[in-house]
Write a structure and sequence with these properties.
By secondary structure, the chain is of the alpha/beta class. It has 2 domains: about 180 residues, P-loop containing nucleotide triphosphate hydrolases (Rossmann fold); about 90 residues. The chain has 12 helices and 11 strands. About 5% of the residues have low confidence.
């Protein structure tokens, strides 16, 4: 296999043929698949606007941030675009434990010819920067301030990174790309839903060339995704059940929007619910185990009402498992 640092896009692929978007646009792609290229999910459904924004990032070296509520598939969307372009890709979750040293690198004691020596080990940022790599920062608005200032430097147009301890200035590979996902676009935890989300300064947000929102899908799209994940319910009865499940999810999102609920059902939760129905053979019990028990106790009657409206039956207090 070709050394990763020597890989370069050698093909131009049709966006219409690969992503199903009505455009004449063609984008560069790699001919070879590296071990860092994500696996293709044949059932994945692309949001056209978000896909075009991401393709601009890959083809024109734009820094792209994808914002949206949890469970909308922000990171997966980037990975699935990369998968179809054979573009190597790594994800870093910016939780509170990720430090500046994790990103930049640090001195470490290693064995060389039986002797202990100290040498510098690159962090994920300089390693990615020198390769044709799409680097994704997940939970971007949860990063610590010292970490964010490391990232701010590579958001500049030239994208160079200075390693002070090494007296080195790293220039990015021509095919290095940078993406991020965030719940709040740097506005902090205004809704109370995302504890740990930080307010980011305007200079940080201003360096992102493209910010695109990924919202929940239309009902028929969400039903199709859940069905693809749980094909046992592809028959008429199964589709009726999944339609009702998605309808319940839409009600929780409306309830969250108007302040009736403090949490909501994401498409990920709906898929989990459908998978649990396969186990427990009861949509009501599976619903309680998948979502209701995660809700505040005072809000559970509201959620139970949503279930009753969509399934035309009460959410029973007790359930008997069906073999």
């Amino acid at each position: 296999m070709t050394e990763l640092t020597n890989l370069r896009p050698t093909e131009m692929v049709s966006v219409r043929e690969v992503f199903g978007i009505d455009t004449e646009l063609k984008v560069p792609a790699f001919a070879e698949r590296d071990e860092h290229v994500p696996d293709v999910d044949a059932n994945y459904r692309f949001n056209p606007a978000v896909t075009l924004a991401l393709l601009a990032g890959f083809s024109r070296d734009r820094r792209v941030m994808v914002q949206g509520l949890h469970g909308t598939g922000k990171s997966t969307h980037i990975e699935q675009v990369a998968a179809r372009l054979n573009w190597p890709c790594v994800r870093v979750n910016l939780d509170g434990h990720v430090s500046r040293l994790d990103l930049v690198g640090k001195d470490a004691v290693v064995l060389r010819d039986g002797q202990q020596v100290t040498e510098f080990q690159e962090g994920i940022v300089p390693w990615s920067l020198q390769r044709p790599m799409a680097l994704i920062f997940d939970e971007y608005d949860a990063g610590r301030p010292d970490v964010m200032f490391v990232i701010q430097r590579i958001l500049e147009r030239d994208g160079q990174l200075t390693l002070l301890d090494q007296n080195r200035v790293l220039r990015p590979n021509p095919y290095f790309r940078l993406f991020a996902t965030a719940n709040t676009v740097g506005q902090g935890n205004l809704s109370g839903l995302y504890h740990g989300a930080q307010r980011l300064n305007h200079a940080q947000i201003d360096r992102w060339n493209i910010v695109v929102a990924l919202n929940y899908l239309a009902r028929e799209e969400e039903v199709a995704i859940v069905t693809a994940r749980v094909p046992a319910y592809a028959d008429t009865a199964g589709q009726e059940m999944i339609n009702s499940m998605v309808a319940v999810a839409e009600l929780t999102r409306q309830g969250f929007r108007v302040g009736d609920l403090s949490t909501l059902m994401s498409p990920r939760t709906v898929i989990t619910w459908a998978e649990n129905v396969e186990i427990f053979h009861d949509p009501g019990l599976a619903f309680k185990l998948s979502f209701v028990n995660k809700c505040d106790e005072s809000e559970r009657p509201i959620v139970a009402e949503y279930f009753q409206r969509c399934f035309h039956r009460e959410l029973d207090e007790s359930h008997a498992l069906v073999a």
